[in-house]
Specification:
The chain is an alpha+beta fold and about 700 residues long. The protein has 4 domains: about 5-135, PAS domain (Beta-Lactamase); about 155-260, 2-Layer Sandwich (Beta-Lactamase); about 270-430, Alpha-Beta Plaits (2-Layer Sandwich), CATH 3.30.70; about 465-695, TIM Barrel (Alpha-Beta Barrel), CATH 3.20.20.450. About 40% of the residues lie in helices and about 25% in strands. The protein contains 24 helices and 26 strands. Strands 18-19-21-22-23-24-25-26 form an 8-stranded mixed beta barrel, surrounded by 4 helices. Helix 9 crosses helix 10, helix 10 (about 320-340) packs antiparallel against helix 11 and helix 15 packs parallel to helix 17 (about 550-560).
Amino acid sequence: MPEPSDACRPSRLQPSGGAEALRLRLTATWYWRLDAQLRFAQVDEAMQCLGIELADWLGRSPWDAPNRMPDAFWAAHRGVLLAHRPFADLQYEVPSPRDRTAGLWLQTSGEPLLDDQGGFLGYHGYGREVTRERLVEVALRAREQRLSSVFEQSPLAIIEWDTRLRVRRWNLAAERIFGWAPEEILGQHARILSRPEQHHVYELMGEYIAPDSVPRKHMAQNLHKFGHELPCSWITSMLHDDRGQIVGGMSIVENLTEKRLAETLIEHMAQHDSLTNLPNRAHLLTLLEQALAETESPTRRQLAVLVLNLDRFKQVNEAHGHALGDQVLFEVARRLRDEAPRSALVARLAGNEFAVVLRQDAGARGAHALGERLRLCLGAPYLIDGHELNCTASVGVALFPGDGADAGELLHHADAALTHAKGSGRNQLRFFSASLKQAVTVRREVERDLGHALRRGELMLHFQPQVDAQSGVMVGAEALLRWNHPINGLIAPVTFIPIAESADLIVEIGAWVLDEACRTLRQWQDQGARGVSMAVNLSAHQLRDAALVSLVAGALQRHGLRGEDLELELTESAAMEDPTVTIDVLQQLRDLQVRLAIDDFGTGYSSLSYLRLLPIHRLKLDQSFVRDIGTEEDDEAICSATIALAHKLKLEVVAEGVGTELQHQYLRRHGCNVLQGYLFSQPVRAEQALAFALTHAPAD
């Protein structure tokens, strides 16, 4: 029981006048008085708010009253009354007369009444309903508990400090982040969380203590209890008392260590190859530009860029799988790092192509010596998973400043030298040269103009008729792409098709060729050409394009053609680049009833086992064998054997490059199905090909 206040000391007022005086000075809602037997002798009309008539109270003790106090309350309070002791602000709950499911909270205070000799006359006091205050108090207490729970359970550190920046509250997250237990940190100045050179941050925090202060955010390099640094983000707000005076601040602190590590990891992944952990092409270009900027005088200092490529690495993947191929590439990276000087940059550009940048006054002699060491190093056998693999490597070299002024140009020229090395028989080292530079310049011009050729309408199709070997009837035509350059005139496909493939233009150009060829065939059919199919060439890039099948289906539907009206040709090398993918795509095309042919047969490296699996209809015998019929017995044997092999596999044979009657008769005699060549017609425009079809049509 709390100690009574001065206002609740025993009163020696008489029951009459004393009670009236007490009524005047109290602010209670109602007044009450008990007699010496602790029975209600007087009650205020205000007590009717409890829903009970005043007469029902008189003559009864509080514990026998209609709205009696709870037993638990009396267990502690009855003894106070019987001992004639004063009491103050005692609260208890009774049922509400308005809502029996709810309760009313009442508060009462009282003091004993004594006569002049100190005899006990009873009690008097006041009471009031405090339900609203009680609910507010409960809500505030619950809010305080929730805030305390949030404070303690927050994943972010929450630190409360006074106006002198001394810590006065410290949650569990703060302890986890900084290592200090509450008993160690409370009362300490906030500067304990940083090194001396960072103490100015807390002086800034002190400046926040101003009437117009708003939450402030700042970054700090904080300090763990055990000395290691923690990058942190702080958001600090001021705390105010009931009068609006600032009494301190509260800071929410986030440890950015993991976030910084994640950002560093993401940046590293964006700049490095995931397999070898070497810098990728984009990062190499950045590092190379930095290295070029460090060359104080380009006339006195040189730098070399070497680009390396494993020869015929594709065959390793095809024979042993990509998983083993990745292990080979990982070993290549290790060998390059071990063999190259420590100051050199080593990077993986793409696939099996790597680069090494020699930065220390690397002249031609030093670059050549390193390039040869790397070529021999990569040419040593690879022992992986019980397999001994033998690969050779080609190297291309470009020197700064003679071969390029910036990183992109140097890398491009080194790659051109690599292409020259591979074209020279592989397992070679070649430097970029003036002649290569001229070729690169021409290539760039062609690539630039080719990018605009389609939009400007400079591309066109010619058509070379195909005739039945026995009847001479035109049964098809091959669509051949031509580029009518506004300055250089007609450019041969052999010049610009490889450039279109390397510049990623071939898919767009191929889509135009397909649509234009189908449109032309539709016109021929509308003008009376019967039984003629259209052959269109596919590149390896188109074969890998996921949209190829839908592109073909769309062209057929758009121009009202049947699937068998179209024949798609692909070379052996394109078909064998990824046989599994090739078989799947060709089967989807065959499901459209499109006819399929292997072009230039005999010049690639396809195996009979794969050829047997390809869902094709025709083989096209390369003209290099056809033109020597009558002069070279070996080529004649190849032609006759190929025709026999194709028929055995239930495939038709088309012979290209037929230019003489002798070749015509030989091929006809050995069962070749279709002939194509200058003996019948050279490639011509669409209207000329239509005229040929109408004059070489089947008899009615």
